[in-house]
Write a structure and sequence with these properties.
Chains A, B: Belongs to the alpha-IPM synthase/homocitrate synthase family. Chains A, B: It is an enzyme of class 2 (transferase). 2 copies of one chain form a homodimer. Chain A has 3 domains: 258 residues, TIM Barrel (Alpha-Beta Barrel); 74 residues, no CATH class; 124 residues, 2-Layer Sandwich (Double Stranded RNA Binding Domain). In chain A, 39% of the residues lie in helices and 22% in strands. The first copy, chain A, has 17 helices and 18 strands. In chain A, the strands form 5 sheets. In chain A, strands 2-3-4-5-6-7-8-9 form an 8-stranded parallel beta barrel, surrounded by 8 helices. In chain A, helix 8 links the parallel strand 7 and strand 8. In chain A, helix 6 crosses helix 7. In chain A, 56% of the residues are buried. Strand 13 of chain A pairs antiparallel with strand 13 of chain B, so a sheet runs across the interface.
Chain lengths: 522, 522
C-alpha cells in the first residue's frame, strides 16, 4: 500500500503572484475544475481579505460541486495589538465559508523583531490565538510557517515554538515554508525530520520556492524525511522564480518513489491538465519542462533516436504515455530515415517504408530542408506536407492575392493595413483589416475572409509567433523562418513558413495553421 | 581556501541538441568569447566528426586567443570490430587539434548488449583502446560514461569496470552521465561517493539532464560527494528537458557552499554573460530563471517589497548585485542608478553621477526597458540614446514618411516595394526600391535617399538581422525586438529597435545603424 501524500495547489493564490499572470473569475473556475478533475487534495483559491472581488469569488465558488478537492482560503495570523474578533482578515476567512483555511505566521525571530516589530512572545500569541479562533469557528487550519527554514537555521528553538503555538491552537497541518527559495535538499531533509518527529500526530507540509533551482528536489527530500503534504503550483507559477512545480513533483514521487499523490488512473491526465491551466493563464508551457513539455520526450540526435527505437527506455526515464505526453522525433538534418518513417507511420500507417510514396516524401523533405524548413518544432506543417504529397488533403482555400501596406506616420494609430482576396469552392471573398503590424493585420484580414466558409476558425487563436533569421550574413535579404503556434480549446499546433520575405513566411505558416485546424476537423 | 571545481560548458555541443537552437559559426565564436571572458574551465565546442562544417570550425577556432578556457572536441569510443587507427571519429578528434577531448562510451550493460550489440568485454576494450589511442597522441581525455547512474543501478560492477578501462587507458577525468535525466540527488550522492573513493587520483565529473527537474540538485549532491568537475550548459539548453543549468549551479555552489567555480571577480558578470548567450542563441531567458531571470529578484508591491526595503535579505536569498542582476519592484520600479552610471561613464566620463543629466538618462533608460529595449547586445543604440539626451549629437536626417507595400503574387519576382521620404538640412529627397522582403526594400530605399548627403554610408553593410518576439503570448500583436549588425571596413556595431510593428522596429534599428556610423565619423 503506497503512502498517500496530500497535494496542495496554490496556482490561484501564490501562482497569481507571477509577474505576468492575472486570472479572471472564469479563469479561476476553469482552473479549479481542472485540478479537481485531476484529483488534487487542496486548491488554495485566493485571499478573501485582499479585495472585494476575491471575497465575491469565494461566494460564487460555493456553487461548484467538486468531486474530490477541498477549497482553501488563504490569510494571515491576526495583526498585533488587536483581538482576533476585531481582525478583518480573520473575519473574512470565516466569511469565505471553506472547510479549510491556510494562514501564515512568522517563525523566523528576525522577521518578528525587524519586520513586524513584535516581541517574540507577542508573535507566538498571535499564532496560537488566530489558529484557535478559526478552529473554534469550525475551520480546519493549515498553518504556513513563513521563513521556517531560514528561521530554524537562525534560531531553531524559536522556529519550533511557532509550530508549537499553531499546534496548541489546533492546527491540523504544519506547512514549513522556504519563503526565499534558497533551501538545499539536505537541509530540507534534516529540518523536516526534526519537525516530523516532534509532531507525530500532525501532518507536516512543505512549501518551496525555486530561487535556487531546487524547489522540486527540496520537496522530494522533505517527503523522504516525513512530510505528507506538498504545497506548490501545478506549473511552477509564482513570484520571482516561481513555486515548487507540482506536475514535476507528482510525477517524480508517484512514478518513481512509490508514493500516491493522485488517483492512479488520473496520472495520464497530467499532460492535458497542464495544457489547460497554461492556456487559461495564457502562459506557454516551456517546451523543455520536465514530463509535460512539448520536447520532454523529443529526440533529435540520430543516435538517440536510433537507441529509443531499439529499446524504449534507452533514452527515456519514463514512458511518456503514462502521463498523457508523447514521444517526438525532431526532424533535423541529423535524424535518420528510420526516425522520419517512425514519425510518418503514426499519422499515415499505410505508407510502406520501402515504397515509392516514402521515397517521394523523403525527397520532398530533403528539398524543404535545403530551403530552410525545419519541422522539428512544427509537426502540424509536417503532417500537412505529407498529406498533400499523399493526396489525402485539399487546401481549404485558394489565395488570389494579398497586399499589405505599412506606413509611417501611422493612421489612427495603426501602422499596417492588409487586403486579402481568397476563393473557396468557386466563391471569391475579399476582406481588409488594419493592425499593430503587418502580420497582425494579415491574420485578421484572412480570418475575416474565411469565417463565412469556416466558422470554426473563430475558436482558434494564435498564441505564439517566432521569427528566426537564416543565413543571416545576407542581412535584410536573408531568409527567415516563422513559427506560429495556434490553439483551440483542446489542442495546440505549430506551423512553419520560410521565405526571404517575412510577410510571405508568416503567410505560409498562417495558412498552414488554418489548414491544419480544418483538416483535423475532417 | 575554497575548493576549486572545474566548470565544463557544453552549450555549443549538448546545448545545440535543443529543439530550437542552431548556432552559426559567428554565433559559436561569440559564445566561446563570452564564456572565456567569464572564466569557465572547459568549453565543449562541437563534434568534429559530425559534419565537415564542424571540422572547419575547429580549424578556424585555432586562431582564437583564449584567456582561460580550454576548448574540447567531443566524440565517442571507436566502433566495434575496427581498430582505433581506422576509426574516422577518433581521427577527427586528433585533427580538431585541441588539448582536451571528451569521448563517451557505454557503461550500462544493457546498452552494451541491446543497443550497440557488443559483448561486455568488447565494450571495455573499445573504451580502453580509444582512450589510450588519444592519450598516446598527446590528448588529455575526459571520459563521459554514458548512462552511468542507470548502469550502476543495474550492474554496479560492470559500470565501474567501464571507468577502470578508461582509467587504464589514461583518462584524466571520469565524467558520470545521467543521460536520461531521471536521477535523484540521494542516488547521485551515494554513487559518486563510491566512484570518488575508488579513483582517488582522478577527477570525477558529473553530467546531468533535467528530465526530473533535478539536474541542479543532482549536480550539487555530486559535488558534496566528491565530484570536482561539473558538465552542463550555461542556460540549461539541451535535448528534451535540457542539461544541468550551469548558471544556477555556479551561483549555488560559489555563493552559498564555499566552492570556487569562477574567479571571484567574475561572478558579477554572470547576468550579462547569460544575456549575451541567450541573444546569440535567439532564445529568451525565462523571466523566472533562478538568479539570472528578469523576475528572479522582482517583488510585487506590498508586503514583500516592504519587507525587502526594511531588511534586504527578508525576501531575497542572495544579493542580486553579486551576479550583476537587479532587484525589481514590479509596480513601483526603483532602478539601480549606479549600475546605469557604471555603463555610461565608460563613454561619457564627464557625466556627473548625481547631476540632472544623469537623472534624465536614468529615467529614459527605465522607460525604454519597460518598452522592451535591452542594450546588452546593442551598445551602439545605447551610446546614441545617451548622446541624444546629452545633446552631443543631432540625427543625420528627418523622416517625413515611409510606405512599404508587400504583395502576392509578386511583381517581377519582387514581393516588396518601399518608398522613403527624408529631409537633410532642409533638402527633401524621396527614393524607392523593391526588395526580397519589406526590410530589404526599406534598407535599399533609405540608403538610396541618403547617399547624396552621406556618400560614406556606401561603405557600410548590414551583416546580421535578428528578430525576437517579446511577450509572445500576444502572438502576432506582440512586440518584436530587432537587432541589426552593421560593418564597415574597420568596425562592426549592433543596434536595436522595438515595436509592435516589425517594420517599425526594423526601421528604428536601421536608422540607428546609419546614425551611429555617421556619429563615429564626426
Amino acid at each position: 500500500m503506497n503512502t498517500k501524500l496530500q497535494i496542495f495547489d496554490s496556482t490561484l493564490r501564490d501562482g497569481a503572484q507571477s509577474a505576468n499572470i492575472s486570472f479572471s473569475v472564469e479563469d479561476k473556475l476553469k482552473v479549479i475544475e481542472t485540478l479537481d478533475e485531476l484529483g488534487v487534495d487542496f486548491i488554495e483559491a485566493g485571499n478573501p481579505y485582499s479585495n472585494p472581488a476575491e471575497m465575491q469569488f469565494f461566494q460564487r465558488v460555493q456553487a461548484l460541486k467538486l468531486k474530490r478537492s477541498k477549497l482553501v482560503a488563504f490569510g494571515s495570523t491576526r495583526r498585533k495589538n488587536i483581538s482576533c474578533e476585531e481582525d478583518s482578515n480573520l473575519k473574512s476567512l470565516l466569511a469565505a465559508n471553506t472547510e479549510y483555511v491556510a494562514i501564515f505566521g512568522k517563525s523566523h525571530i528576525l522577521h518578528v523583531t525587524e519586520v513586524i516589530k513584535a516581541t517574540p512572545d507577542e508573535n507566538l500569541c498571535m499564532i496560537e490565538e488566530s489558529v484557535r479562533f478559526l478552529t473554534e469557528h469550525g475551520k480546519k487550519v493549515i498553518f504556513d510557517a513563513e521563513h521556517f527554514f531560514d528561521g530554524y537555521k537562525a534560531d531553531p528553538a524559536y522556529a519550533l515554538s511557532a509550530l508549537e503555538s499553531a499546534a496548541a491552537g489546533g492546527a491540523c497541518i504544519l506547512s514549513l515554508c522556504d519563503t526565499n527559495g534558497g533551501l538545499f535538499p539536505d537541509e530540507a531533509e534534516t529540518i523536516v525530520r526534526v519537525v516530523a518527529e516532534k509532531f507525530p500526530s500532525l501532518v507536516v507540509g512543505i512549501h518551496c520556492h525555486n530561487d535556487g533551482g531546487l524547489a522540486v528536489a527540496d520537496s522530494v527530500a522533505a517527503v523522504c524525511a516525513g512530510a505528507r503534504h506538498i504545497q506548490g503550483t501545478f506549473l511552477g507559477f509564482g513570484e520571482r522564480c516561481g513555486n515548487a512545480n507540482l506536475s514535476t513533483i507528482i510525477c517524480n514521487l508517484q512514478l518513481k518513489c512509490g508514493y500516491l499523490c493522485l488517483p492512479a488512473e488520473n496520472m495520464q491526465k497530467i499532460y492535458e491538465c497542464a495544457m489547460t491551466i497554461a492556456e487559461t493563464a495564457n502562459i506557454a508551457v516551456p517546451q523543455n519542462e520536465p514530463y509535460i513539455g512539448m520536447n520532454a520526450f523529443a529526440h533529435k540526435a540520430g543516435m538517440h533516436a536510433d537507441g529509443v527505437l531499439k529499446c524504449a527506455n534507452s533514452f527515456e526515464h519514463v514512458d511518456p504515455a503514462v502521463i498523457g505526453n508523447k514521444r517526438r522525433f525532431l526532424l533535423s538534418e541529423i535524424s535518420g530515415k528510420s526516425a522520419i518513417y517512425d514519425k510518418i507511420k503514426n499519422y499515415f500507417p499505410k505508407v510502406d517504408k520501402n515504397g515509392r510514396e516514402m521515397a517521394i516524401i523523403a525527397e520532398e523533405l530533403k528539398n524543404l530542408a535545403v530551403q530552410g524548413y525545419q519541422f522539428e518544432a512544427a509537426e502540424a506543417s509536417f503532417i500537412l506536407r505529407v498529406s498533400r504529397i499523399l493526396g489525402h488533403y485539399t487546401p481549404s482555400f485558394e489565395l488570389i492575392n494579398y497586399k499589405i501596406i505599412n506606413e509611417q506616420p501611422a493612421i489612427e494609430g495603426k501602422v499596417a493595413t492588409a487586403v486579402v482576396k481568397i476563393r473557396v469552392n468557386g466563391v471569391t471573398r475579399i476582406a481588409a483589416s488594419d493592425g499593430e503590424g503587418p502580420v497582425h493585420a494579415m491574420d485578421l484580414a484572412l480570418r475575416s475572409a474565411l469565417t463565412e466558409f469556416y466558422p470554426e476558425i473563430a475558436g482558434t487563436a494564435l498564441v505564439d509567433y517566432k521569427v528566426r533569421v537564416l543565413n543571416s550574413d545576407k542581412a535584410t535579404a536573408a531568409k527567415v523562418r516563422v513559427l506560429i503556434t495556434t490553439v483551440n480549446s483542446t489542442d495546440s499546433w505549430t506551423t512553419v513558413g520560410v521565405s526571404e520575405d517575412i510577410i510571405e513566411a508568416s503567410w505560409i505558416a498562417l495558412t498552414d495553421s488554418i489548414d491544419y485546424a480544418l483538416m483535423k476537423r475532417m
